[in-house]
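User: I'm writing a short methods note and want a consistent example. For Mediator of RNA polymerase II transcription subunit 10, I'll paste the sequence; you return only the structure tokens, no commentary, since I'll be parsing the reply automatically.
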Amino acid sequence: MAPQSTGPISAVPGAAATASAQQQQQQPDASDAASVQNEQIRQDLELKLQEMIECLLELSITVYDFQSESNSLVHQKIQELITQLSDIEGFKDKLDMMVPWEVLGYIEDGKNPDLFSKSFVEAVAGENQFTNGKITALKAGSFESALTQNLGSFFPDEMMDYNQLVASASTSDNTTAPRLEHPNDVSTTVKQEVEDGSFLTVNNTVSTTSSAGSSSVSPAS
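Assistant:
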């Protein structure tokens, strides 16, 4: 039975990878396009609001100094205002933007909405400074030294013992075990206590020979 060709099978992962890369490239492009479109709609809405404000201003001036010949002008401005309100109503399905309730409160009170942005930025800056101060206080350079100093003032004996333990621990960590010159030769000294209280020292030297595969033990006299 002749072996089947694996050419098309090996080409499938490459095509899938290419398609995945194209999708990843298209996703940022789509998001950027949506952002640009959203910004354009926002600018159009802002322009419509400015036109409506101008229309209201002209209407208020006309009504304030109303005369009989101004009747047609008042009706014209009212029709323009109705058209502008209808156009603004059409933006509700095109633009998705969150507006804080506080901004509406500023507008209802006749205040500048920029004051909300100013107060919000000041609040965020204050919170940032507070958090930065907490982080700085908890860092090793300030908090640990202050804690050690205060503990040393109230508990001098305990802190002295603590410092000695820390010093001994650091010394033991820096100490390294002696290396054997010959890894195959091990010399051990064993002390065995006898009944009369004396000690017997026995030097056992174990030599291993890798070539012969044997070992010898020679007790010291």
